Amino acid sequence: MTDASSVVVIDSEKLSTIQGGTTNSDQTDFFVANVAEQFRAYYIAQGGINARYYSLGTTGSGSQPEPEPEPEPQPEPEPQPEPEPEPMPEPEPEPEPEPMPEPEPEPEPEPMPEPEPEEIQKVSNYNLLDGAIPNWLQPTNYNNPMGGYEATFNAWCSPTTAANHLGYMVDNSFLTLPPVLNDGVIAGNTQPNADYTSTIGWDTAHGWGDYLLDGPTYRGVTAINVVTDFGWYMNTNNLGVNGATANSAVGTKISNVYNGYVEFYKESGWNNVVGMAYNKGVPQFLGTANEFPQYWKNNGHNSTITLDKDVFLLTVQDEIDNNRPVVGCYKGWNITSAGYSDIVFNGEQEANATFFNFGAFNANNGETGEVYTETIDNENLGDALGHSVLIVGYIKRGSLEDPEGNTDWLIVRDNQVNTTRNVIVPFENVSTSDLTGWNNILASLYLNFNNSAHAYIEPEPEPEPEPDTTAPVINLTGDNPYIITEGTTYTDPGATADTGETVTNNSDSVVNTSVPEDYTVTYTATDAAGNTGTATRIVRVEAAAAPAEAVSLRYTVYNSSNPIAQPADRYPGLDLGNTNVVHIEAKLNNQETGIINAICGWDVNFNGPVSKADWLLPPEYGNMNHNFNIYTIQVSGGFGSSAVPKYNNMTEGNADGTIRGTTTPYFSMSNGTNKVFAATASGVSLADNVVIPAPADPSQWFTLFYARADDSGETLPIPTTSEILVSPRDGNYGASDVTTVSITNIPSA
User: Fold this and answer.
1) Residue 182: enclosing H or E segment and its boundaries?
2) How confident is the model at residue 213 (pLDDT cuts 50, 70, 90)?
3) Under a CB-based contact definition with an 8 Å cutoff, are residues 389 and 444 in contact?
4) Dihedral, CA atoms, 175, 177, 183, 188, nearest 10 degrees?
5) Is the pLDDT of residue 232 over 60?
6) FRET label pair with 98: which of 12, 137, 317, 490, CA 20 to 30 Å apart?
7) CB 175 within 8 A of CB 189
8) What single DSSP character describes residue 539?
9) How far apart are CA 167 and CA 182, in angstroms?
10) Taking 60 as the threshold, does the pLDDT of residue 550 lie above it?
11) How far apart (Å, rounded) are the C-alpha atoms in residues 258 and 281?
12) pLDDT reported for residue 459
């Protein structure tokens, strides 16, 4: 090795790193000095003259010291002749290097003090829906203008939430079709709550309060592209389209919340826009994959994810970030103030919000009348009754707005007057693992109009009309048959057709009121299709009533089957064994008829083929001071051929109690025209009928008997074709004009 100058630099900082990071300066200096000495000895042994060692760690500043200056070079000596080289002496053996002392043990390093934690600067991290958000309360808060109508519509949290939902989408132009859904008033501009000025006039049209509740004139009245309030479709309180069969007497079942949303928007022309996730019980999603929340679609989730709280929170945050409110169905709604300062939303349309915490479950909501389901059937979550709210924002944990430092919060509209406009409730406190908020969420509903396109509902085409083959039905006015009296005027009572056509009839041409008879009147009506209907009526013309009957007549036939009492006493010689005796009773009904002035007796005639007949009067007639005749009439051969007297010039009372006479006989008979003839031995002439004296009181019944006998007095059967005619005789013994009463068809013995 030639004479040279060598510099070795030892970096104490790197050396300390190799040693394990210790910063003990004494130990480092000792180590550097020993190493330097070893290198110096090594270089000298190799022929080096100068060897200097520096340590960057010994300067205290970490900089390298300037090296010592090189010595001035010596002038070259004059060249001398080279002497013979002397043999090189043997080099002395290098001394054994002294052993390096054992290094002292390193002292235990003093523990480094814990660094002071740096204060983390919190940043704002929340989001609210953009634009005005309505805050409709439940109907019971709107006595003005409803005037008592609202009292029936309590427990209305779900329809109210749906109204706030619709109002937000419409008022901020996220939903523009159909126009009928827009009442033209931005309800969210009314602070703190929407009131009757925030919508159309009460009961003036459909859609009061963003379809919170229709008035009595319009509620439930729907048509194509015309809808009524949300509660009608949700069957809230059984006051909807399905009535009591909805089985939701107080509030709205969770499944009916979904069904009501679907029906309302379907009737408005929107299909496939509503989806609901069951967040408790069995994972379930109501709707198709088309209605999945957008976050699910973006991340490949399906209905099995509904019970995942983290996915739920991320889904809600994504919906809010895209200005789509979410409906949350909670298990009850018992909240109290959390005691934190309200949040003031700078630059937001919403002014501020209040923090609340969940209390213990309470099945009854005294503010709204709602009743909640405490024990949830995981298999049938849709039958549960909860409290629906509209989620309108969120606060992320650890943000400037999070008062607890590690809690996620949801901002909701809870539709209750006893809370605030913006209610903040916890979702999860990560530090304490408090999941009360998440545990209370039963279901969530999502509405996304990007999933479908609006289509007006086209009315069903009218079916082609069937050919009209139905004739009008004619309904008669008045009686059928219609009875009038002979000689009166007939006025037809008319008729109507069931389809309104004019009805005509032919009564003028067929009815003759002067002739008693039944007449058929025909009614006719023809409709626009040419179908003719008919109906008929009987018009009965009855004969004019005769003057009031002056005579009443009754009779009894006596024979062996019905014998006369004591015939031997009253009628000696009368044999009832082979004949009939007709017991006739007659009386005057009315002496003031104007026809009969006084009754002095009765005319009795008979008609019929008889051989002989006797008139037998009861004994009581024997004491009457009247002269009268009774004739025995014998007919042999033709009509009126002969007459044989039996008793003539009858006088009062014979010994046997009968009345008999002895004058020249004659008889009287009536032909078929009521003319009376008398026949004597010399011929036939007009004559009086047989006159029988009347009782003292003509209105009382009088009695006579008619029997048949031969020449010897033996009784004979009365032919059944005989006819007995009885009429009263007036006071002058003249024939009366009173209609004769007859007895016919006398039964045989």
Assistant:
1) none
2) very high
3) no
4) 0
5) yes
6) 12
7) no
8) E
9) 8
10) no
11) 17
12) 73
Contact 485, 541 (CB under 8 A): yes
* Integer Cα distance of 224 and 227 in angstroms: 8
3-state secondary structure (DSSP) of residue 356:
strand
pTM of the model: 0.51
- Helix or strand or coil: residue 32? helix
Q: What is the pLDDT of residues 406-421, one digit of tens each?
A: 999 999 999 999 999 9
Contact 388, 157 (CB under 8 A): yes
Which of 159-168, 422-431, 513-522, 560-569 shows the lowest mean pLDDT across its residues? 560-569
Residue scoring higher pLDDT (364 or 32): 364
> Could you read off the pLDDT of 564-578 as tens digits, one per residue?
554 444 444 444 454
Mapped onto helix, strand or coil, the DSSP state of residue 170 is: helix
pLDDT reading at 40 higher than 50: yes
Contact between 677 and 666 under an 8 Å Cβ cutoff? The reply is: no
Task: Please count the residues of the chain.
Answer: 749
CA distance 19 to 22: 7
Place of tokens 């928007």: 265
Query: With contact defined as beta carbons under 8 Å apart, do 227 and 221 qualify?
Result: no
- Buried/exposed 452-480: b ≥16 CB within 10 Å, e otherwise: beeeeeeeeeeeeeeeeeebbebebeeee
Structure tokens at 457: 């509902």
Between the CA atoms of 392, 395, 396 and 399, what dihedral angle is there, to the nearest 10 degrees? Answer: 150
CA dihedral 610, 613, 618, 624 (to 10 degrees): 110
Q: Which residue has the tokens 């999860």?
A: 428
Write out pLDDT tens, residues 466-486: 899 999 999 999 999 999 999
∠ CA 92-94-98 to the nearest 5 degrees? 145
Residue 89 has pLDDT above 70, yes or no: no
Residue 564's nearest CA partner among 549, 552, 553, 575 is 575
Running DSSP on this structure, what letter comes out for residue 339? -
Q: How far apart are CA 686 and CA 669, in angstroms?
A: 10
DSSP class per residue in 469-504: -PPPPEEE-S-SSEEEETTSPP----EEETT----E
CA proximity to 733, closest of 600, 627, 625: 600
Q: Which of 487, 708, 406 is nearest to 579 (CA)?
A: 708
At 72, list the tokens. Answer: 């001035």
pLDDT for 343 equals 93
| Cα–Cα distance, 536 to 475 (Å, whole number) | 10
Integer Cα distance of 181 and 171 in angstroms: 10
Q: Residues 272, 273, 279, 280: what is their CA dihedral angle, to the nearest 10 degrees?
A: -50
575 CB neighbour count, 10 Å cutoff: 16
